[in-house]
Specification:
The complex is a heterodimer of chains A (about 600) and B (about 190). Chain A is an alpha/beta fold and about 600 residues long. Helix content of chain A is about 35%, strand content about 20%. Chain A has 20 helices and 22 strands. In chain A, a hairpin with a 4-residue loop joins strand 20 and strand 21. The chains are: A alpha/beta (about 600), B alpha/beta (about 190).
């Protein structure tokens, strides 16, 4: 069977064929769909973990028990998971284990552009890099075999273009692999200094064996064409290189990219006149090739920043300049992502933006959009779960140096469970009067609606215990707590005023489902359904644009009539604009 | 079959470019082509500018279309056609929906929706304008606008030999099959302005 699949879907097929029994992940673009589509296989236990460290630890546990297992995360998630990863490399696997790192060159949906191939070198583990969907499937099967043959966890490095591009995949048969027995083995899994000292030596030996494998495996293969130009490439960049050079160059395609096949590279380099190393982001291969004394051209010509494409490579190496359609496109205004019409975050940020002398410490999620025009209500967004801890440090310093500033930390429900809880624990313990706001929209929003410990369902759709954020906040040691409806601006304002006056830590929980969320039965009982839409009475509208400042995409200011119009197709009747209007020109209709 | 063809669909998150490209790529695979398709998820879904790219031929390498490489640009929203125009070959074709969606700066009164986009397009490249949204509305569901545009694209790319009606039927919910097949036919045969 042959099907057009994304790289993420192909990985799932590979996991099925390789008899992977357990998978865990935290959602993150571009990796999210891997676990979502794995969840459809009843042969696999697939779970959302609260964060990436927990996900990889669960996967390590499955491996130690003797089962084949897989963890998936976006590249910054691997930073969170790095602690267990670095040490488990010493232990080595029992059942095969693969960690998928989905990197995001070009920052389509990320906060940095880190190149996670360095993690393979850092942790001293094997790495595979697919170039299309077929390889994404096949290499998962290969990764399991390599992992079990050499006891190494495998870093499976994908990028946005590999994850989200579709290409044809020829399916293979499922290999029924029986779970290995669990064997208590302190000499491998009990990482105390005396054991780890010895394991480090074994790890170095394993790397030498992996390098020998790298030199002989067909995952690293040569395509001979004209020998004037030789190209070493991997991942998406290999497809781009072929697009540009076709059969006018010879290729050494690297699929097993750590340890590098240095003998194969040396032999290839000796046959070609000019050697290019074409790789996205950092000179990961180039540095090692140059360190081995092999001359090559790489980052002096190919950019280090941003996503590559054939155009960039053609320009950099061949000086190709294409004729493009000449036309003034500067008149086209930008179209940035925005909070949806009816988003429960809007009312909260609208009120927060009005508070003077505050620093708003943001977090990763849809509510990051609260920092954009016209709300402009976020001062910083660094990483998952950081809002309360960055806020704590800042608040302590404002207080110490007698600066009249208050800090408001803002995170979502999924972010709270991710690592926000730890940060809030620190706030309670070390006593800063930061105001931590948890915008609970009853789902993991930005990545496209994944369940989390607060939603009442598991990834595979089973009803489960709902973890109550309010109770967790109390248990973490916060005494001052208010739960508000974010669509009620008066409630939001009063809660903010109340919290700002406090000299101790406080938490405001806003509770309302994401406007795009399909309501569960519990949601329907608690929140009801949206009814009616808002409408502007043009007689009363004075064109003050107060409602426009909420940034709702259902509202449009007509410059000619100097009135606001509401698009009924988008409006869900959340009534935030209605509360903002100073002349009561907005009414609810159709209830 | 040897030459690789490039189709770029552009629009606004939520307009249905993904379904249109899914139908397109499924049909191309059934017709025996090598196919690659690329789209970007994530933040783009929140009302941002979105693009889906489909490449087909005997053997396709890169999953993405370079600037100046597309044979056809199908714009689901009017000004998006202009935003992505430099992806089109100078001799390529544009199919544009005469339908505006204001972006955030326009809604806030900080920018104007550009006037004369259709004229600029017509003066620059081979342009077909249709009001796919109105046509779809006439067929009973404004959301089928994507399939109307798809029909117009099939005609323009001369892909009419592929059994699209069967493929559409396999990719939409049973109760929407007739409406979508009609939308496809309407796009295939519509008079353009």
């Amino acid at each position: 069977m042959r099907k057009l699949l994304t790289g993420n879907e192909a990985v799932t097929r590979g996991a099925y064929e390789a008899s992977i029994a357990y998978a865990s992940a935290y959602p993150g673009t571009p990796s999210t769909e891997i676990l979502e589509s794995l969840a459809e296989h009843k042969e696999i236990i697939a779970e959302w973990a609260p964060n990436e460290k927990v996900a990889i630890e669960c996967v390590i546990g499955a491996s130690i028990s003797g089962a084949r297992s897989l963890a998936a995360m976006k590249m910054v998630g691997v930073n969170v998971a790095a602690d267990p990863l670095m040490s488990f490399a010493y232990s080595g696997v029992n059942g095969g284990m693969v960690l998928i790192s989905a990197d995001d060159p070009g920052l389509h949906s990320s906060q940095n552009e880190q190149d996670n191939r360095y993690y393979a070198k850092f942790a001293k583990i094997a790495m595979l890099e697919p170039s299309d969907s077929q390889e994404s499937k096949d290499m998962i099967v290969a990764a399991m075999e390599i992992s079990e043959m050499y006891y190494t966890p495998v870093l499976f490095r994908m990028t946005t273009r590999i994850c989200h591009s579709k290409s044809l995949v020829e399916f293979g048969d499922r290999q029924e692999v029986t779970k290995k027995p669990y064997v208590k083995n302190l000499q491998r899994n009990y990482l105390v200094p005396a054991i780890s000292q010895r394991l480090h030596i074994i790890l170095e030996e394993r790397l030498k064996q992996l390098e020998a494998f790298s030199n002989q495996t067909n995952l690293n293969f040569i395509q001979w064409n004209d020998k004037k130009i030789g190209i070493i490439s991997a991942g998406a960049a290999f497809q781009y290189a072929q697009e540009v050079f076709g059969t006018t160059a010879s290729y050494l395609k690297i699929g097993f990219s750590y340890p590098l096949p240095m003998e194969k590279i040396r032999a290839f380099a000796q046959e070609v006149e000019t050697l290019y190393v074409i790789e996205e982001l950092e000179p990961f291969m180039e540095e090692q090739i140059k360190a081995a004394g092999i001359a090559c051209i790489g980052k002096e010509k190919i950019p280090r920043c941003g996503e590559l494409n054939p155009e960039i490579i053609g320009k950099a190496l061949l000086g190709v300049e294409k004729t493009l359609i000449q036309c003034d496109r500067s008149i086209v205004p930008s179209r940035p992502p925005i909070l949806c019409a009816g988003c429960p975050h809007r009312g909260f940020f609208y009120e927060l933006a009005k508070v003077k002398n505050v620093m708003v410490s943001g977090d990763i999620g849809c509510y990051g959009l609260g920092g954009a025009d016209p709300l402009n209500a976020v001062d910083s967004t660094i990483c998952m779960g950081a809002s309360a801890s960055i806020g704590h440090g800042a608040q302590k310093m404002f207080n110490k140096f007698n600066e009249n500033m208050r800090v408001v930390g803002v995170m979502g429900d999924s972010t709270f469970f991710h690592t926000g809880m730890n940060s809030l624990l620190n706030v309670a313990y070390n006593r800063s009067n930061i105001i931590t706001c948890i915008l609970d929209n009853r789902i993991t929003g930005m990545t496209g609606h994944q369940e989390n410990p607060g939603t009442g369902f598991t990834l595979q759709g089973m009803p489960t215990k709902i973890i109550d954020i309010l109770e967790v906040v109390k248990a973490l040691g916060i005494d001052q707590i208010k739960v508000v409806n974010p669509l009620n601006l008066k409630e939001v304002k009063e809660a903010l005023d109340w919290a700002i006056a406090l000299a101790e830590p406080s938490v405001i929980i806003t509770r309302w489902p994401c406007v795009l969320k399909k309501h569960s039965e519990k949601d329907r009982i608690e929140f009801g359904d949206y009814m009616g839409t808002c409408s502007v009475d043009e007689e009363k509208c004075i064109g003050c644009k107060m409602c426009i400042k909420t940034g709702c995409p259902a509202l449009c200011f007509n410059k000619e009539t100097k009135k606001v119009k509401i698009d009924v197709g988008q409006c869900v009747g959340c009534e935030v604009c209605l509360q903002v209007c100073p002349v009561k020109a907005i009414n609810k209709v159709g209830e | 079959m040897s030459e690789v063809k490039n189709i770029i669909l552009v629009g606004v998150g939520g307009q249905g470019t993904i379904l249109a490209s899914k139908i397109l790529s499924t049909g191309l695979v059934e017709a025996g082509y090598d196919v690659k398709m690329s789209e970007v998820h994530g933040m783009a879904q929140r009302g941002g500018s979105v693009t889906t790219q489909v490449r087909y031929g005997q053997k396709v390498n890169s999953p993405i279309i370079d600037k100046g490489q597309a044979d056809i640009l199908v714009a689901f929203e009017t000004m998006e056609a202009l935003r992505w125009l430099d992806y089109l070959k100078p001799e390529g074709k544009v199919i544009v929906n005469d339908f505006r969606i204001n972006s955030a700066p326009i809604l806030m009164g900080k920018a104007e929706y550009p006037e004369g986009v259709l004229e600029t397009l017509r003066n620059t490249v081979d342009t077909t304008v249709l009001n796919a949204t109105e046509i779809a509305e006439g067929l009973g569901n404004v959301k089928a606008m994507n399939v109307v545009l798809f029909g117009a694209m099939v005609k323009a790319m001369n892909l009419t030999d592929i059994p699209w009606e069967k493929i559409i039927a396999a990719n939409v919910k049973p109760k929407f099959v007739d409406m979508n097949v009609n939308a496809y036919k309407a796009g295939m045969t519509t008079d353009t302005k």
